[in-house]
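Quick start: read one record
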Amino acid sequence: MLEVIAQSVEDAKAIELGGADRIELVSAISVGGLTPSYAMVEEVVKAVYIPVNVMIRPHGYHFNYKTDELKVMKRDMELLQDLGINGFVLGVLDGKKVDTRALEYLLENIKCQVTFHRAIDETNVVESFKALSKIDKITQILTSGGPGKAYDHQDILDQLYEIAPEKLLLGSGITINNMSDLLEKYPQAGYHIGSDARVNQTFSNRIDENHIRMIVDLMK
């Protein structure tokens, strides 16, 4: 499964044409991705047939949220889940641990799939992954195995893959150049691509459909 980050309707259409399996829709990728607008979500869902997962993140400062911020996140989820999206992407921490109470609050009455994002990489990744993998509503966990690039944390990824391979979504620094090695070790995992899906591998450029096709062919 290949997921690619989109910031616009144009991005989403190009990602679909490239043959990716799913879109992660965000705004403000310069700070790691924030919640896109209601209108953006609505138009992207109308424009493509592949599943769209939506980032739920009210600011880019940290992942420790106050009560008012959690209320905003929950309200965004309630509104957006009726637009035909596939799921949400979120992460909540209490210090350097997963905030289980906040997570329970956010997931209440949510019918969509949920990906817990790379906030996990600021915690004890293995212990957090074990706990999150037991939550039915969390269908995938996006991680690089720790701060930095996924390729550099294969010792941790090995452990995560043994726990729940179907819930492991590898992200950060995944490129066409290192994907073959990762696919060989983690064939059941999902793969999350950001800048590598764009012209000259930078977020300041458009989506490169041909490059995505090359990645898709590599994954077959």
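The mean pLDDT is 97.
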